[in-house]
Amino acid sequence: GVPRSATRGGQRATMSLDQLTVMVITFNEKANIRRTLDSLRWVPTILVIDSYSTDGTLAIVQAYPNTRILQRKFENFADQCNFGLSEVDTTWVLSIDADYVFPQEGAQAIEAAIQGDAAAYRAMFRYCIYGEPVRGSILPPRTVLYRKARAHYVNDGHGHRVVVEGSVESLPFSIRHDDRKPLSRWLQSQINY
Fold first, then answer.
1. In sequence order, what DSSP letters do the residues of the chain get, joined into one string?
2. Confidence at residue 58, expressed as pLDDT on a 0 to 100 scale
3. Quick check: pTM over 0.85?
């Protein structure tokens, strides 16, 4: 649906991007995090929950004035995300991975979405290999933008998912998933799972 402005006491209230925090979970994301943060320069606040990276990730993140870093030992994704939510003080959260790249139209679409009545928004993805979209990828849509007060995370297999109370609509753009860490690292993580 088309986002509408919220009303309070008969007056129209407009949400701005100041009511949005991006939340990203990191651990050794040096190969990816710069592209992600470059695509989010329009966001006032990016909260990075880092699991004690050792590869230079934090030095990259600290170069961006709109970031705030908190470190926490990783136990599982849901706990890490729920901890991050407890540190957010805005109405809206855009929860992303450190290898997501947003299109230029993302800023305007998200600003319009947070004017709407939905509790959350899902996004489509385009899987990329070194920046080039793969034609036949099968990444399902994921809920990435939601009202903080209506959301919490649960573990789901070897991953996690956000549970949202209320309606979930679709964003009008796709996010690029562009992980440039070595394939050997991915294979090892699959073995560990």
1. -----EEETTEEE---GGGEEEEEEESS-TTTHHHHHHTTTT-SEEEEEES---SSHHHHHHTSTTEEEEE---S-HHHHHHHHHHT--SSEEEEEETTEE--TTHHHHHHHHTTSS-SEEEEEEEEEETTEEPTT--PPPEEEEEEGGGEEEEEETTEEEEEESS-EEEEEEEEEE---S-HHHHHHHHHH-
2. 97
3. no
